[in-house]
Write a structure and sequence with these properties.
Number of strands: 6
Largest sheet: 2 strands, antiparallel
Radius of gyration: 22 Å
Shape: rod-shaped
Order of helices and strands: EEEEEE
Structural class: mainly beta
């Protein structure tokens, strides 16, 4: 949805995002959201828990893979690369060779 604002109009955007942002723009102008001291004419940016870098949740903390594999974090998901003789997302299927 696009909303065209006139000079002096205010818009408040509230929501939750867990992820990464790059080159954020508003009406074609780049937002300097990481530097709380940066001033941008006509724009007020409030940072809440914004950090540089890109980190997802620790999906491997719950140890989702069995002992015949290791957990590989793939950004808010995981994969369990199987040892020889096993297959499946969590190496649950044994191959009889």
């Amino acid at each position: 949805m696009r909303t065209r604002l006139s000079a002096g109009q205010l818009i408040t955007m509230v929501g939750h995002l867990e992820g990464c942002l790059r080159d954020v723009r508003f009406h074609g102008e780049r937002l300097l959201y990481l530097d709380a001291t940066a001033r941008q004419p006509g724009v007020t940016v409030t940072n809440v828990n914004v950090r540089p870098g890109c980190r997802g949740g620790d999906v491997c903390a719950a140890a989702p893979c069995p002992t015949n594999a290791f957990c590989n974090d793939t950004w808010n998901d995981f994969e369990c690369p199987c040892m020889p003789g096993w297959e499946g997302k969590t190496t649950q299927s044994h191959l009889f060779l």
